[in-house]
Amino acid sequence: MYTAHTKITNLEAEVASLKEKYEEAKTDRERAEILSKDRDLAGKDAEIAELKRSLFEAQEKNESLEIDLATEKVKVDTAEEARKAAEETRKISISALNVAHTNYVEAQSIVANSILNATELDQAVAALTDAARAVGHRGGYLECTRHVENGAERTLWHSPLFCDRPSG
């Protein structure tokens, strides 16, 4: 029985030793799991930090782009205002050119009509000369011309002495 008892004691010691080793292994495995989880968490922390940095850079870039966009909008608005002003100026210029062209055409027409009516003008001058001679002015048109050159402002055609009066 002594042998059996020794065997039981040895077996109990071996079981206790195995339990101890098991507990140590279990603790080591748990530590390894914890270390593995710690490494995973550290990796996740690094990933989170990188994502935060990327997010911060994206926000800064977004703000910069918003500023650039606002600047571009101002440029576009300014360019649009300048285009509208140029268009208005162009319309005014075209209108002014049209008026000038119309006036030029009218002036050409007047000159052309004057040239075409030169015969009528000669006939009117001849009639005035005849009328001046008829009322006693022998110099006729020449005499009336001198009277006008001397500053006559009004002429009384019914008076036989109108060319001899001092002007004033």
Q: If you had to describe this structure to a student in words, what would you say it looks like?
A:
By secondary structure, the protein is mainly α. The protein is 84% helix and 0% strand. It is built from three helices and no strands. It has helices at 2-116, 118-134, 141-149. It is rod-shaped and about 190 Å long.
Question: Which percent bin holds the helix content?
Answer: over 70%
Radius of gyration: 60 Å
Q: Tell me the overall shape.
A: rod-shaped
End-to-end separation in angstroms reads: 174 Å
Low-confidence stretches: 153-168
Treating each run of at least 4 consecutive H or I residues as one helix, how many helices?
Answer: 3
- What fraction strand? under 5%
Helix and strand sequence: HHH
By secondary-structure content and strand pairing, the structural class works out as mainly alpha
The tally of beta strands, per DSSP, is 0
Average pLDDT, all residues: 78
In short:
The protein has 168 residues and is mainly α.
What's the structural blueprint in terms of helices and strands?
Layout: H1 2-116, H2 118-134, H3 141-149
Features:
single chain, 168 residues, mainly alpha, 3 helices, 84% helix, disordered C terminus
